[in-house]
Automatic annotation (TrEMBL):
Keywords: Cytoplasm. Belongs to the NDRG family. One of its GO terms (cellular component) is cytosol. It holds the Pfam family Ndr. It is found in: Cytoplasm, Cytosol. Signal peptide: none annotated. This is Protein NDRG4. Gene3D superfamilies: alpha/beta hydrolase. The keyword Transmembrane helix does not apply.
């Protein structure tokens, strides 16, 4: 596909089946563990209360990392495995982290009263500025999955000045057609709500072959998330409209996401077609497409290590310098890191002469089993000090050549 920017992270040791399931089944570890660094807040917004948990406080010009979960989940079920991964903790300790739960989806949420009108997807996006204002964030880097990715994309379209970057997993930019709507209605008549949601989260192959993980999520969705509230969120997500985005130059006055975007999908995920469609509608010079090997529908659960590494490169490409040594290369998690100031945006020198075509840089690191290729503007690579750190990490300087994609 023209303009496709793809990174592949083959996992030399994929997470064993049942490993993530064991973690999910141990609710004492997965849901009830208390971290005193996390603070819970209920924030008033124009469309009702929003439950948020936050760790840290805004520091300097660093953005906050703000997450939004998929339908059927909450921030714990969706992101605990990812944010508790050791490499991700090494990254996020330099940022304030803010997890947002969709209305009524948090653990222990009360059931909405009869006749409650659940916010539309546009209204869910319009609730987020209240969170940003409440905590005094200047801007955020959003990480969203599925429905949460759609909400964050809407947020970035409506309030572009508040969004520094986006990581969108399993995003589907298209609304449901009549056939899809009818199929969803029929599924609701013949299946339980948790099973209906599972078909959204996992591919048919995963539902058949990865039964331990699927069964764990079935239990958690049925027992942890209020079913009446979940039904309202599910109905609203399936009533969403198309994201109003088009690749610049394809239509007059095209609207698109202005910030850097990393699109993520598993190589065996039900959302793959939607993510590829979204990639075709975004600016190829600011968008990266990441297809995770051996990850399926929940890459943040099944491949947290590779996703953490990709997120680190994403931050570096935006100019947030991470002097983090790879534990596999430096001998352990206790390896020294730079002081917090190293994570502030680096000053950008004057840009080089304009280039008329997209250029391709690629590099590989056989020493850590990572094969990585990325399409970027040559001018961006030249002016971003972060790339010198990437070159140091992978052991050799990338070479440039014309990209096969269209600019």
């Amino acid at each position: 596909m023209a303009g496709l920017q793809e990174l592949r992270f083959p996992e030399e040791k994929p997470l064993l089946r049942g490993q993530e399931a064991a973690e999910l089944e141990n609710s004492d570890t997965f849901l009830l563990a208390v971290d005193t660094n996390w603070k819970e807040h209920d924030i008033e917004t124009p469309y009702g209360l929003l439950h948020v948990v936050i760790r840290g406080s805004p520091k300097g010009n660093r953005p906050a990392i703000l997450t939004y979960h998929d339908v059927g989940l909450n921030h714990k079920l969706c992101f605990n495995t990812f944010f508790n991964f050791e490499d991700m903790q090494e990254i996020t300790k330099h940022f304030v982290v803010c997890h947002v739960d969709a209305p009524g989806q948090q653990v222990g949420a009360s059931q909405f009263p009869q006749g409650y009108q659940f916010p539309s997807m546009e209204q869910l996006a319009a609730m987020l500025p209240s969170v940003v204002q409440h905590f005094g964030f200047k801007y955020v880097i959003g990480i969203g999955v599925g429905a949460g990715a759609y909400v964050l994309a809407k947020f970035a379209l409506i309030f572009p000045d508040l969004v520094e970057g986006l990581v969108l997993m399993n995003i589907d930019p298209n609304g449901k057609g009549w056939i899809d709507w009818a199929a969803t209605k029929l599924s609701g008549l013949t299946s339980t709500l948790p099973d209906t949601v599972l078909s959204h989260l996992f591919s048919q192959e995963e539902l058949v072959n990865n039964t331990e993980l699927v069964q764990s999520y079935r239990q958690q969705i049925g027992n942890v998330v209020n079913q009446a509230n979940l039904q309202l969120f599910w109905n609203m997500y399936n009533s969403r409209r198309d994201l109003d985005i088009n690749r610049p130059g394809t239509v007059p006055n095209a609207k698109t996401l202005r910030c850097p975007v990393m699109l993520v999908v598993g190589d065996n995920a039900p959302a793959e077609d939607g993510v590829v469609e979204c990639n075709s509608k975004l600016d190829p010079t600011t968008t990266t497409f990441l297809k995770m090997a051996d990850s399926g529908g929940l890459p943040q659960v099944t491949q947290p290590g590779k996703l953490s590494e990709a997120f680190k490169y994403f931050l570096q490409g935006m100019g947030y310098i991470a002097y983090l040594k790879d534990r596999r290369l430096s001998g352990g998690a206790g390896s020294p890191v730079a002081p917090p100031d190293a994570w502030t945006p680096a000053p950008v020198p004057p840009p080089p002469p304009a280039r008329s075509s997209v250029r391709c840089c690629s590099w590989a690191s056989s020493c850590c089993g990572l094969e990585l290729s990325c399409v970027l503007l040559a001018s961006k690579a030249q002016k971003s000090p972060a790339f010198s750190q990437i070159w140091a990490l992978v052991g050799r300087r990338p070479t440039f050549g014309l990209c096969c994609g269209r600019g």
